[in-house]
Task: inverse folding
């Protein structure tokens, strides 16, 4: 029963009570004979009792109807469809209870959908891990079989052992990358965002890739003033910048250069990682941030296609973003934007 119906019913009973009292006082005031008064009072009282009985019956019908509508609503939600008798804009008790049930159903449905999404992500991760691990494990098994079944000279044994060590290093790198990726995907890592100096964060990232750059005679330079700060997690941001720098060194030919420059803006601080490498076709600007993506031009280089994916995920979870501009044969610029 809605508010209008409730108000009408109350007014009806108040009017009935007023009429009963008015008739009673009128009879007394008119000094009608006692027998007639009793008959009149009994008639009025009987009418009130009849109305009360009808009202009670109406109330039971209302409760029964309310229960039936709720049962129909629950049956529809259990079956996964919207209730037919749902009127969200109606001002009634049934509509309010149905609205709460619909809210609860939406919350549970969203939770179930998120659970299915998480399950799909885990299945994809397992499939990706299986695919990526297969190659180094097969190589290690093959080299082990050769060493066990053949009597090779010491030089050849050393060569095979060196190849096996390389495959073990690749497997270790892959597993560490997959661990970081799984933590990123499932949100199990904690970001401690603070206003910190970017020189320290960049220095941490550069130090991790410096030896590799020196071995390939690649110069790394940094252009960042000491006072420049940004809202970021120093540890995870250094991890993201390391992945960008590692990619830059990897795809830059020997004798090239990699430059890190910082430009403070009003709302964001931009960090550019510029290299003189092979470049990226414009059609792959978005693809390079996908998990396990490797362009055909980069197939001969080491890596599994997780570095840029991890870097992008880390920066996005700090309310920043990464974009790329490149020209084939001339190099690429990866720009990281962090909140000032």
Result:
């Amino acid at each position: 029963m809605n508010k209008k119906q409730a108000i009408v019913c109350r007014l009806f009973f108040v009017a009935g009570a007023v009429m009963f009292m008015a008739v009673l006082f009128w009879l007394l005031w008119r000094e009608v004979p006692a027998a007639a008064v009793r008959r009149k009072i009994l008639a009025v009282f009987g009418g009130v009792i009849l109305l009360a009985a009808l009202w009670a019956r109406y109330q039971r019908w209302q409760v029964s109807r309310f229960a039936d509508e709720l049962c129909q609503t629950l049956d529809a939600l259990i079956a996964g469809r919207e209730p037919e008798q749902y009127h969200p804009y109606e001002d009634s008790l049934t509509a309010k209870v149905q609205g709460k049930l619909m809210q609860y159903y939406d919350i549970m449905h969203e939770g179930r959908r998120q659970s299915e999404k998480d399950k799909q992500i885990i299945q994809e991760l397992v499939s990706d891990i299986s695919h990526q691990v297969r190659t180094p494990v097969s190589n290690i098994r093959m080299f082990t079989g050769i060493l066990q079944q053949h009597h090779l000279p010491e030089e050849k044994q050393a060569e095979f052992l060196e190849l096996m060590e390389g495959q073990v290093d690749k497997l270790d790198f892959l597993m560490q990358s997959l661990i970081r990726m799984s933590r990123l995907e499932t949100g199990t890592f904690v970001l401690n965002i603070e206003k910190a100096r970017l020189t320290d964060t960049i220095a941490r990232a550069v130090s991790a890739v410096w030896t590799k750059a020196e071995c390939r005679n690649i110069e790394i330079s940094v252009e960042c003033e000491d006072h420049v700060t940004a809202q970021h997690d120093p540890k995870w941001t250094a991890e993201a910048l390391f992945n960008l720098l590692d990619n830059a060194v990897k795809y830059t030919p020997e004798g090239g250069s990699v430059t890190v420059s910082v430009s403070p803006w009003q709302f964001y601080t931009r960090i550019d990682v510029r290299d003189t490498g092979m470049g990226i076709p414009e059609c792959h600007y978005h693809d390079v941030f996908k998990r396990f993506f490797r362009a055909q031009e980069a197939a001969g280089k080491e890596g599994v296609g997780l570095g840029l994916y991890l870097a992008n995920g880390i920066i996005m979870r700090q309310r920043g973003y990464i974009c790329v501009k490149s020209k084939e044969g001339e190099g690429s610029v990866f720009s990281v934007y962090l909140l000032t």
